[in-house]
Amino acid sequence: NAGVTQTPKFRVLKTGQSMTLLCAQDMNHEYMYWYRQDPGMGLRLIHYSVGEGTTAKGEVPDGYNVSRLKKQNFLLGLESAAPSQTSVYFCASSSVGVVYFGPGTRLTVT
Amino acid sequence: ILNVEQSPQSLHVQEGDSTNFTCSFPSSNFYALHWYRWETAKSPKALFVMTLNGDEKKKGRISATLNTKEGYSYLYIKGSQPEDSATYLCAFENSGYALNFGKGTSLLVTP
């Protein structure tokens, strides 16, 4: 039981490049989330999903898109990366109650 | 955006001291209040999930209380140890869907 996994762990992008972060969970959870963590800002919700095929905006959705084509996967896309998107990205999943976090992806946009 | 406030922002105590932190959250549309422990270079791990007013949870030397009517929760650590050093996050859940996190309290326990 791997829990929540994230790919990649680290990435450096140039401004304007695009990329997709992959999150996978093997706990059959309905809910999945993408958060970003910045110094002094805590964890801020980017997008979330309450089930396969559904997505919703969180607190800071601009510049990101998401898809939940399969229940176990939740993809976060950056279409045109900006330096302001330099952050650590955490994926998480839950069923009822406890939220389980992935190990994080450290993204740097130069 | 739901305002979840944690205090203090940081805390430095000596080994053996007992300490407590506060989490304030909106008192309307309450669903659950979560506490997480976040060690450096790791991901947050759940400590407690509380749903009922007056709830008290305990795990070893760590305990938490909940007051949903006035919108606050306390986390207590009895006899702090260096391994308790971490950031403690609280999160408010109002819809059963997504958590709104506070900025955390950073605890450092020195021998």
Number of E-type strands of chain B: 11
**Radius of gyration of chain A, in angstroms, nearest whole number:** 13 Å
The SSE order of chain B reads: EEEEEEEEEEE
Biggest interface between protein chains, with counts per chain? A-B, 24 and 20 residues
Counted beta strands of chain A: 11
The average pLDDT of chain A is 94
Helix content of chain A: under 10%
Radius of gyration of chain B: 13 Å
Helix content of chain B: under 10%
Mean of pLDDT of chain B: 92
Unreliable stretches of chain A:
none
Task: Count up the helices of chain B.
Answer: 0
List low-confidence stretches of chain B.
Answer: none
How would you spell out the order of helices and strands of chain A?
Answer: EEEEEEEEEEE
The largest pleated sheet of chain A is described as: 7 strands, mixed
Number of DSSP helical runs of chain A: 0
Write up what this structure looks like:
The complex is a heterodimer of chains A (110) and B (111). Chain A is mainly beta. Chain A contains no helices and eleven strands. In chain A, the strands form two sheets. In chain A, strands 2, 4, 5, 6, 9, 10 and 11 form a seven-stranded mixed β-sheet that branches. Chain A has a four-stranded antiparallel β-sheet with strand order 1-3-8-7, with no helix packed on it. Chain A is globular. Chain B is mainly beta. Chain B is built from no helices and eleven strands. The chains are: A mainly beta (110), B mainly beta (111).
Give a summary of the structure in a few sentences.
Chain A is mainly β and 110 residues long.
Can you give keywords for this protein?
A: 110 residues; mainly beta; seven-stranded mixed sheet; four-stranded antiparallel sheet; 11 strands; 0% helix; globular; B: 111 residues; five-stranded antiparallel sheet
Topology:
The complex is a heterodimer of chains A (about 110) and B (about 110).
Chain A: E1 4-7, E2 10-13, E3 19-25, E4 31-38, E5 42-49, E6 56-57, E7 64-67, E8 73-78, E9 87-94, E10 99-101, E11 105-109
Chain B: E1 5-7, E2 10-14, E3 19-24, E4 32-38, E5 45-50, E6 56-59, E7 62-67, E8 72-77, E9 86-93, E10 99-101, E11 105-110
Parallel strand pairs in B: 2-11
Antiparallel strand pairs in B: 1-3, 3-8, 4-5, 4-9, 6-7, 7-8, 9-10, 9-11
